[in-house]
Write a structure and sequence with these properties.
CATH architecture of the largest domain in chain A: 3-Layer(aba) Sandwich
Distance between the termini of chain A: 51 Å
CATH topology of chain B: ABC transporter involved in vitamin B12 uptake, BtuC
Number of strands of chain A: 24
Shape of chain B: globular
Helix content of chain A: 25-40%
CATH architecture of chain B: Orthogonal Bundle
Oligomer: heterodimer
Number of helices of chain B: 13
Mean pLDDT of chain A: 85
Radius of gyration of chain B: 22 Å
CATH class of the largest domain in chain A: Alpha Beta
CATH class of chain B: Mainly Alpha
Strand content of chain A: 15-25%
Chain lengths: 538, 368
């Protein structure tokens, strides 16, 4: 195999976004008939790499890239995904890109239909050609058969089970005779276990026809089941390229998440597991697009900082959004042993919970309003604070002075950089906006505070300020905090316990002192017996 | 379980067909009240099928392309009227005159449709309200053209259609030479009922065209764009261009439809004939069981028959019931707008339900 010319070769790919380096000297190659597993955490650079490969416009708009992409020995630089497609590189995305009211055949040959000439064509051009359905059906059938699955080409996509939709996508990519390289981005994420097995078998079959496949997944087991080699990306660099037979799953997991931990003192836990349970979540499901929570149960103890981590799209963000009533949810949430109704945003606020949303500019702030308004808003709306009753309570009047005093208190306490408390929220920097969001939640004086991605999109200095503010609020007021973050290190630095969410379920709960390898294994959907034990202990 | 699914399928049928079923019931009550003879009613409905079907057909293609009900079809109607006015001025008569009117109206309709398509591409997801307001706007331009430019800039020599001041078109134009020239081209009378054979032939050809169009690459692309613009775009279909073409076809068909409508009526109310064109066409289509996102050829015919039967019987039924024909008159206008509002609300409600349904597998046990 090794003497064979590589099908696809990436040489020294380097990419910066606005001075922020996301890929550094990435080199690897793909041979014919090979399945290459590409793994890495969020932000490791997988999607940027694929964007470069497919000539997505976002790359050229941000100044292009350095390095070379070679397809069958010739350097290519695609200007659009259609160029990539024409050259024989296809991709199956995590999200379906199918037309629901069309049949499998129509979707597989979408915009690649078999056409007939007719008289009108001469006058009005090729778009008046008629479709040749029997020929299209034959091609689609061929393509489906190649995958070794049993789907009728005449089934409407809307009526298919999820697994069949994924196969239809795959069939669309491979029906082209020129197809050489196929990229699959988390194709098994939406599949059941048995469907995923069938897909893996199909991939093997495809590879045997000489197609090279790049397989991106966070389920390491699948990589080990089907891939010849693994490329591990971390922080934009290839940290390891290894044959599957020469490594083990724990090794890969560790390489994937493992970072130098010096300098990040794990949280000093004064927290005592024996304290009472303040928040109990049982069998929670949340229908939040892209962050579906399927079945989550956990307890949070009074006074602790409870972390929730996991890879993007696995459902960690759905948990606070569902509990706070922002997305359709079901299950049981109990605060202080009292049921909190779901799907009613006012109820959790009234019960004593507050939420700092990951969507700072959308949900978190009234961008065009002044700071003092922003800080007082939730407390005012949910708790009737800062209101003066007039005419015996018939009319409630806003207490502007109290609002201003409150805002000034928090501007001082959190060191919010602003001209004065009348400044509109949109004029502040990201870090200061985040502090306003925190102040807004603090003003409610909650018993349990949910903080979602508190440091996303803010610079390093502001990050530690935000984390310190959370930690000291927890310590001084004894407020229980549930923090959701994609950054494991951040969670490990302030949390007392960390739950890892995988595929809408809690994969396990670990102390912050647990090793990177253990966290990594949870993220890739593999429980060990120790972690089961931790779960049971809770 | 089976009872539940039976109830589900019953409710699905009801949601899908509530409007036509309601109308059948309504008309079943109104016909005996009106005391019209069957012969008269059938004759009226046949006349109106010939008169209105073509206009209603012009709505089908934008629905296929996911642009909803094209209230902007009045743009085409206005183009057709300008064609009719000019042809009358030039003294052309008969079916030949109609065809020249169509030939004059076509480039105008293409231009207006192209402009409307561009505007609607800037208002994706809000095409219906955009096209409605666009219709009002172009109505103003039309009035300027007809009231001022015609006779001032465009020479109008026929004194029968020019206002006595020398420019501007009279309020009503008698189309006597063209009156029913198409309808009576192939004369046929059955049991005293005049059958507009040639008009029906034209409509049949249009049906054939629409059926064939659905099988062309362009028609197929329109269906794809109509269902999911993003997916279509990713597949390399030129979404915006496809949408513009859909609106152009609709506008041109509306132009022809209005000319056929006017030749049947026999007079052109220069400033009013197009006022209710879109509303009535849309109402008829919806009454035929179409929705904002789905319409077929049978919907057109069922809709025209039901809507116009109601149109014919409601004034007299109103008179019998309430002692005033005005009640019936009022009723039919009220019904047209009501049906449009109802259909749009039903559609929005159905979309929410469908979205929930499609995500039901992602949700936990609902009974918890």
């Amino acid at each position: 195999m090794s003497e064979q010319e590589p099908l696809l070769e990436l040489k020294g790919i380097t990419k910066e976004y606005y001075g922020n380096r996301v890929l550094t000297d990435v080199c690897f190659n793909l041979r014919r008939g090979e399945i290459l597993g590409l793994v890495g955490e969020n932000g490791a650079g997988k999607s940027t790499l694929m964007n470069i490969l497919f000539g997505m416009s976002v790359i050229s708009e941000t100044g292009g890239y350095n390095g070379e992409v070679c397809l069958e020995g010739t350097t290519v630089n695609f200007q659009s995904p259609f160029d990539a497609l024409a050259a024989g590189i296809g991709m199956v995305h995590q999200e379906f890109s199918l037309i629901p009211g069309f049949t499998a055949t129509e979707n597989i040959l979408l915009n690649g239909e078999v056409l007939h000439d007719n008289i009108v064509t001469k006058v009005f051009g090729p778009r008046m050609k008629t479709l040749d359905f029997p020929a299209m059906r034959a091609i689609a059938k061929n393509s489906i058969d190649l995958l070794g699955v049993n789907i009728s080409p005449d089934t409407l996509v809307a009526e298919m089970p999820v697994g069949h939709k994924q196969f239809t996508e795959l069939a669309r990519e491979i029906h082209r005779p020129e197809m050489k390289v196929l990229v699959l981005d988390e194709p098994t994420a939406v599949l059941t276990e048995s469907e995923a097995q069938v897909l893996l078998t199909s991939l093997r079959r495809l590879a045997d026809t000489g197609i090279g496949i790049i397989f991106i997944t966070h389920r390491l087991q699948e990589i080990f089941d089907v891939c010849n080699r693994i490329v591990i990306l971390r922080d934009g660099k290839v940290v390891r390229e290894v044959a599957t037979t020469d490594t083990t799953m724990p090794q890969v997991a560790e390489l994937m998440v493992g970072r130098d931990l010096s300098g990040h003192a794990a949280a000093s836990t004064e927290y005592d597991a024996a304290t009472e349970t303040i928040l109990a979540v049982e069998h929670l499901w949340v229908d939040m697009p892209g962050e579906t929570v399927r079945d989550v149960s956990f307890d949070v103890h009074k006074g602790e900082v409870f972390g929730i981590g996991g890879l993007a799209g696995q459902g960690k963000l759905g948990i606070p959004n569902g509990i706070m009533g922002l997305y359709a949810a079901g299950g049981k949430v109990r605060l202080h042993d009292k049921d909190v109704p779901l799907n009613e945003p006012a109820a959790p606020l009234a019960a004593g919970m507050a939420f700092v949303s990951e969507d700072r500019r959308g949900v978190g702030l009234l961008l065009e309003e002044a700071l003092d308004w922003n800080i007082a808003f939730t407390a005012m709306q949910a708790q009737n604070k800062f209101m003066r009753p007039l005419l015996g309570g018939l009319i409630k009047w806003r207490d502007d002075r109290a609002i201003r005093d409150l805002a000034q208190k928090y501007v001082k306490a959190l060191d919010i950089k602003c001209t004065d408390t009348n400044q509109p929220a949109q004029e502040l920097s990201g870090g200061n906006q985040q502090k306003v969001c925190l102040a807004k939640a603090f003003a409610v004086e909650p018993d349990v505070l949910f903080v979602s991605e508190p440091t996303r999109g803010i610079d390093v200095g502001a990050k530690s300020l935000v984390l310190d503010a959370l930690r000291s609020y927890n310590r001084d007021k004894g407020t229980t905090i549930v923090m959701i973050s994609s950054e494991l290190e951040e969670l490990r630095s302030i949390c007392d316990r960390i739950a890892i969410v995988d595929e809408g379920r809690i994969a396990g709960i670990l102390p912050p002192t647990a090793s990177a390898k253990d966290f990594g294994l949870l993220m890739i959907g593999r429980r060990t017996h120790e972690q089961e034990a931790v779960n049971n202990h809770d | 379980m089976t009872r539940k699914t039976f109830r589900q399928s019953l409710s699905r049928f009801w949601v899908g067909n509530a409007v036509p079923v309601m109308f059948v019931v309504l008309i079943a009550f109104a016909i005996p009240l009106s005391r019209f003879s069957a012969n008269y009613l059938v004759g009226e409905v046949i006349t109106r099928l010939g008169r209105d079907s073509f206009l209603v057909f012009s709505l089908l293609i934008p629905i296929m392309a996911g642009m909803g009900l094209n209230f902007g079809m009045v743009l085409g109607a206005m183009a057709g009227q300008i064609g009719i006015i000019l042809v009358t001025n030039w003294g052309m008569t008969g079916v030949g005159g109609l065809f020249v009117a169509m030939a004059v109206g076509t480039p105008l309709a293409i231009l207006l449709g192209w402009a409307a398509g561009i505007v609607m591409n800037h208002a994706k997801g809000r095409e219906m309200v955009t096209s409605l307001i666009l219709g009002y706007f172009i109505n103003g331009v039309y009035q300027l053209v007809v009231l001022y430019i015609m006779g001032k800039i465009i020479p109008i020599s026929n004194s029968a259609i020019v206002l006595s001041r020398g420019y501007g078109i009279r309020n009503a134009i008698d189309l006597k030479t063209m009156r029913q020239s198409l309808d009576r081209l192939i004369p046929l009378k059955i049991d005293g009922i005049q059958i507009p054979v040639a008009t029906f032939v034209v409509i049949a050809l249009l049906c054939l065209f629409i059926w064939w169009f659905g099988k062309t690459k362009l028609g197929h692309d329109m269906r794809a764009v109509g269902q999911d613009m993003k997916v279509a775009e990713e597949a390399g279909i030129k979404v915006e261009r496809t949408r513009i073409i859909a609106i152009i076809i609709s506008t041109v068909l509306a132009c022809y439809g209005q000319i056929i409508f006017l030749q049947n009526i026999g007079t052109l109310n220069t400033y009013n004939s197009h006022d209710q064109t879109a509303t009535f066409a849309v109402a008829a289509l919806l009454i035929g069981g179409a929705s904002v996102a789905r319409a077929s050829i049978p919907n057109v015919f069922i809709g025209v028959i039901l809507f116009h039967t109601m149109f014919v019987v409601s004034p007299t039924a109103g008179k019998q019931l309430m002692g005033s024909a005005m009640i019936g008159e009022y009723f039919r206008v009220f019904v047209s707008y009501g049906v449009i509002a109802l259909s749009i609300v039903l559609y929005a409600w159905k979309r929410v339900k469908e979205r929930e349904q499609s995500r039901s597998s992602l949700r936990g046990d609902q009974d918890l």
